[in-house]
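Annex B. Sample input.
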Amino acid sequence: MSVDLFQNRVRRADNVLPLELLHHIVKVSSATPGYDTNLNSWDEWLYRGSGEIRLRSLFGDLRLYILEHLQAAFCEHTLDLTDATVIYQEFYEGALINWHDDCRPDVTDQYASTIYLNDDWTTEDGGAFVFEADANTEQYVTPSFNTAVLLRPPVQHRVSPCTAGEKVRKTIQIFGGTPIGGSK
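Annex B, continued. Sample output.
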């Protein structure tokens, strides 16, 4: 069951992935050398001033299992999973993402989601999902183990700087929607 945080555009769900799958994702993604996705695909202003961020695309059955569990957690069986991108991310000390909106002109029914993988993250560690509830109000979602935030653009949002020292913020990031005129 999910909880609406803002006009059904930002929702939160707990216990998104089976623990066995969650631990497998962290183990496999953290242990595999090299990262096959990099920040070159992001606009530079998005991570200006950030500490190190590492990204790894997830494919095949693992990608599909994650997407199916996301659908179930949010009771969102209309989410188009066909072209969804699933990325394992690690944010190190000082890592952040600046204010942005995930709207894309070539995609309808867009969504973005973050699944938090750290079981020892605190508010003091930073790395919060921050969104504008209105022009004068920011709301914070502190990363919490096996919890997901589902975002339906347009919503301005950012990730606050990670201040956890040696601890690494670990997430799965998902971007999806229905491409206009065919596949992405």
